[in-house]
Amino acid sequence: MEFKAQILDEKAIDRTLTRLAHEIIEKNKGIDNLVLVGIKSRGVPLANRLSNKIATIEGRPLKVGSLDITMYRDDLSLKSYQPDVKGLDVDFEIDGKVVILVDDVIYTGRTVRAAMDAIIDYGRPASIQLAVLVDRGHRELPIRPDYVGKNVPTSSKEIVKVKVLEVDDFNEVAIYQK
Ligand SMILES: O=P(O)(O)OC[C@H]1O[C@H](OP(=O)(O)OP(=O)(O)O)[C@H](O)[C@@H]1O
Ligand SMILES: O=c1cc[nH]c(=O)[nH]1
Predict the structure, then answer these.
(1) Which NCBIfam families did the record assign (predicted)?
(2) How far apart are the CA of 29 and the centre of ligand 1, in A?
């Protein structure tokens, strides 16, 4: 895989998350009833960072849960990957809550669809919203994020990689050629 270009550096990621925190507060007219659920590896640290930024603005953090979803290749259709929900880790009620899903990248939308299924299986949220650091297009389902860090037009031969300090030892969003 060949490195093509950096899209966001550490400072840009931080500024973007600050903006998303403000957008979340603005859209919801405060933080009553809001909880965050980060999707697997990199959505979870991003959700924690958003919670900390919201605490700086509103005086208290949001509760953060996590959702573990992995993709497996469906043997019958070699082209497509199917998301598999491994586990939902929330130690708080979601009934009546506005659940904000947080992920690093949205592409086909299949991961988010699986995430919504898992949330709805678990409880009865008032609503579900979606925050992503990068929307790279190519949706295969009618899913659109409520909060987008950066829209990055891509070709299907490219891949967007988000690196976060908590997982990768550095912070970066970059495009690679497959
Ligand atoms: O919209 P989709 O087509 O479902 O793609 C988006 C998902 O793909 C990536 O996860 P990936 O499976 O690459 O795992 P990773 O986060 O562990 O790298 C990313 O973190 C999203 O969760
Ligand atoms: O480019 C992509 C596509 C799916 N998930 C990613 O993290 N990057």
Answers:
(1) PRK05205.1-1, PRK05205.1-3, PRK05205.1-4, PRK05205.1-5
(2) 30
CA of 124 to the centre of ligand 2 (A): 29
What is the pLDDT at residue 37?
A: 98
pLDDT in tens, 117-156: 999 999 999 999 999 999 999 999 999 999 999 999 999 9
Predicted ipTM of the assembly: 0.95
Alpha-carbon span 63 to 37, nearest angstrom? 8
- The per-residue pLDDT for range 9-53, each reduced to its tens digit, is 999 999 999 999 999 999 999 999 999 999 989 999 999 999 999
Give the number of C-alpha atoms closer than 13 A to the C-alpha of residue 47, restricted to the C-beta side. 25
Asked if 54 and 61 touch (Cβ cutoff 8 Å), the reply is yes
Residues 110 and 106: their CA atoms lie apart, in Å, by 9
CA 44/CA 41 separation, integer angstroms: 6
pLDDT of 70 reads 84
Q: What's the CA gap between 86 and 1, in Å, rounded?
A: 28
**Position 73, amino acid:** R
Report the DSSP beta bridge partners of residue 177: 2, 158
DSSP percent split of the chain into helix, strand, coil, nearest 5: 30, 40, 30
Structure tokens at 159: 């891949």
**Ligand 2: which of 46, 81, 102, 136 to mutate, most ligand atoms within 8 Å of CB?**
136
